[in-house]
């Protein structure tokens, strides 16, 4: 596998792993439909997610009480619940620690490359 394919696959996997956080963070700003989320992910990360992936996540978040969907003009529009607001607040507070973790992962990669014999 070429390095660019590997990086592309890793990028896609990372976005999918953090998708619930992206959904909650965007819902903190405005209400959106599933179709709106597909467009948001595509515009923001240049990745096309299937409707099955997005709707499965939305239903899961709704079952967990983090978001609430309501029918509006032939589509289901989602908003954050109080529990969702609290959850995204915790994530935002942990933002510094998450950035530090990602920086350490990046440094680990740099340190491993520099210690490799040439």
Features:
single chain, 118 residues, mainly alpha, Arc Repressor Mutant, subunit A, three-stranded antiparallel beta sheet
Describe the protein's architecture and organization.
The protein is mainly alpha-helical and 118 residues long. The chain has one domain (3-114): Arc Repressor Mutant, subunit A, CATH 1.10.10.10. The chain is 70% helix and 12% strand. It is built from six helices and three strands. The chain has helices spanning 3-17, 19-29, 34-45, 51-63, 82-93, 95-114, and strands at residues 32-33, 67-72, 75-80. It has a three-stranded antiparallel β-sheet. A hairpin with a 2-residue loop joins strand 2 and strand 3. Helix 3 (34-45) crosses helix 4 (51-63). The mean pLDDT is 87.
H and E string: HHEHHEEHH
pLDDT < 50 runs, ≥5 residues: none
Shape: flat
Largest sheet: 3 strands, antiparallel
Q: What topology, given as strand order, has the largest sheet? A: 1-3-2
Give a count of the beta strands, DSSP E runs of length 2 or more. 3
Q: How big a fraction of the residues is strand?
A: 5-15%
How far apart the termini lie comes to: 23 Å
Q: What is the CATH homology-level superfamily?
A: Winged helix-like DNA-binding domain superfamily/Winged helix DNA-binding domain
**Arithmetic mean pLDDT:** 87
Number of domains: 1
Here the CATH topology equals: Arc Repressor Mutant, subunit A
Portion in helices: over 70%
Radius of gyration: 17 Å
What is the CATH architecture descriptor?
Orthogonal Bundle
Q: How does the helix and strand content classify structurally? A: mainly alpha
């Amino acid at each position: 596998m070429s390095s660019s394919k590997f990086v592309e696959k890793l990028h896609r996997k990372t976005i999918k792993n953090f998708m619930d956080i992206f959904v909650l963070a965007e819902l903190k700003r405005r209400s959106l439909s599933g179709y709106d989320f597909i467009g948001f992910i595509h515009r923001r990360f240049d990745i096309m997610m299937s409707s099955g992936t997005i709707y499965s996540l939305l239903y899961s978040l709704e079952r967990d009480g983090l978001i609430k969907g309501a029918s509006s003009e032939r589509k289901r529009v989602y908003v954050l619940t109080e529990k969702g607001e609290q959850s995204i607040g915790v994530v935002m507070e942990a933002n510094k620690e998450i950035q530090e973790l990602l920086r350490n992962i990046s440094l680990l990669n740099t340190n491993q490359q520099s210690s490799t014999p040439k």
